[in-house]
Amino acid sequence: MTESHPPAGNAQFRPELSLVLPCYNEELCLNYTVPPLARTFADAGINLEIVLVDNGSKDGTSRVIDDLIKRGLPVIKAVVPVNRGQGLGITTGFQACTGRYIGYLCADGQVAPESVLAIFRLLKDSPVPALAKARRRFRQDGWMRKIISVAFNGLMLAIFPGIKSLDVNGNPKILPADILRFMELSSEDWFLETEVILKSRHLRLKVIEINVPGFARKGGKSHVRMATVLEFVRNIARYRFGGGLQAWSKRVNNRGIERAQEALRTP
């Protein structure tokens, strides 16, 4: 069950980019992350739609989202009543997106708005449909999270040779809306990040990955735990050996991606 609310302000608002921010107990972050993001894109003359998903939060996240809407920010609210994972929060947000391009971003402020804008501009300038994303460098994370990240990315490169990313979980990830919907993303947990990369590889999408500084969270606590690592490993095994990717790939073929790309080129 989800709820959504229309963007505040002009009824003729037509976003060029929709960004989904899944929010699980992010009460302390949102006032520091959302207004600068909206301001950066407004200053650049880009219509941005921010979809904030209350992903089953138990703190005051829902109230803060409502306050941001009342302040007139270009925010849509979506709700997942019970948290079942990061991925479900993101895919729930996708359902509310109306932009020509759609992406998602963590709500914790670890990637600066200026970096998000730079990534989006590179995507728009691409002569072919592409996935544009961040590679976080000089990350201000704890040592445990850094070790987990290096191990996970190394495992991905070993099991899925040829993936075009050195930071699989790095976001934002932004794609043309038609291509993103064509992917039929279904992961309800953190593995959604990997699903995007693997399906991009299958569709032979160009991947634009640029280095951005990774900052400390603006507030609250990280939700990455050792259980998250085990979750990743199980999902990697399922996709590699259990046919998780094959079931989707059987429904798509070269003509399918050509149709999606043609739809993107049609005004």
Let me know the largest β-sheet: 7 strands, mixed
Count of beta strands? 7
β-strand amount:
15-25%
Q: Let me know the CATH homologous superfamily.
A: Spore Coat Polysaccharide Biosynthesis Protein SpsA, Chain A
What count of domains describes the coordinates? 1
User: What structural category do the secondary elements indicate?
Assistant: alpha/beta
- Runs in which pLDDT lies below 50 for 5 or more consecutive residues are 4-11
N-to-C CA distance:
33 Å
- The strand order across the widest sheet is 3-2-1-4-6-5-7
Instruction: Quickly count the helices.
Output: 10
What can you tell me about this protein's structure?
It is a single chain. Strand 2 (48-55), helix 2 (61-70) and strand 3 form a beta-alpha-beta unit. Helices cover 43% and strands 17% of the residues. The protein is of the alpha/beta class and 267 residues long.
Summarize, please.
This protein is of the alpha/beta class and 267 residues long.
Which characteristics define this entry?
267 residues; alpha/beta; Spore Coat Polysaccharide Biosynthesis Protein SpsA, Chain A; 7 strands; 17% strand
What is the secondary structure topology, with strand pairs?
Layout: E1 17-23, H1 30-43, E2 48-55, H2 61-70, E3 75-80, H3 86-94, E4 101-104, H4 113-125, E5 130-137, H5 143-159, E6 173-176, H6 177-182, H7 192-202, E7 206-213, H8 226-241, H9 244-249, H10 254-265
Parallel strand pairs: 1-2, 1-4, 2-3, 5-7
Antiparallel strand pairs: 4-6, 5-6
Helix pairs in contact: 1-2, 1-4, 5-8
